[in-house]
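FIELD: query
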Amino acid sequence: MNPRRLLLLYIAFVAGIALLNSLAALQDYQRGGGTRAWEPFLWEFSSALFLGPLNLAVGWGLGRLRGRAVDRQLLLLAAGFLAFSLLHVAGMFGLRFAVYGLVGVDYRPGPLGELLRYEGAKDLISYAIALLVGRGYWAWEAARQREQELERLRAELAEARLARLIEQVQPHFLFNVLNLISSVMYEDVARADRLLCELASLLRQSLSAQQAGEHSLAEELALVRPFLTLMQARFGEQRLRVHLEAEDAALLVHMPALLLLAPVENAIKHDVATHGGPVTVRVHAALRGGQLQLAVENSGVQQPGLPDGGFGLANLRERLVARYGEAACVRFGPFDGGMRLQIQLPA
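FIELD: result
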């Protein structure tokens, strides 16, 4: 709730209390033979008119006292009560004398000493209530600030963790691709040169994606395509067949950057590179029930020795847990003679 609305609610609360007290005082006044019905309202509202701001001042003063020594706080609180009571009495009776003077009615509130004792006792109760409410408010405010600071630290920690996990992808991916290039550079220099050019272009795009941290599925697939081009240049298009299928709606969904490179790389590393026959790697994306559903499939061989998908998929799982918690789902296992990785993210 914004401060302006809180202030309006407080003013309405103080006015409501003053009205209830005025109606109660009016009954006693009329039973005592009073004839000016406006007097009880003047008495109660003149008190509330000054008590309201003074209570706010007490709350503000408590905020200023935080962090001070206890003995100094007690001294200032005692001085604050004296100021509170004197300002309340002076303001309240000053207003009453002014109104009575305007209407031409004589006003005799009683002996000053008795008046100060009576009003001082009531002010002590009001001051104590203001202190309790003020203490509660500042305790709540301190807890809220601690919670905000904790959330900020959690967010910074999550971002730092995500940055570390993303950075792990780059060297791992680069190491594997350079190994692939080195295997052909002495057999076909022109092909190795083309592969290096593709790699340079891919690294420029992946660096931009890493800095962004998040982008659309369309932009993610724009990174996967040149990687697959590199792999097809390495293994040959007859041996490595690629199918990228994505619904138009799914292409617009935002996702963590560089999320699909590791799964696609794994499908090639643990399938095409170890299988002599033709292999199909399929990437499919769809939007279902507010969830982005991704699948990476390879049709070559099953890998029962890699139940968790290896380093790349362990990295992927950590990234998804850090960003989405339990809202994301990852499944990896045998499928139709090969392996399939399924990823489900909030859209």
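FIELD: remark
The domain at 183-346 is CATH 3.30.565.10 (Heat Shock Protein 90).
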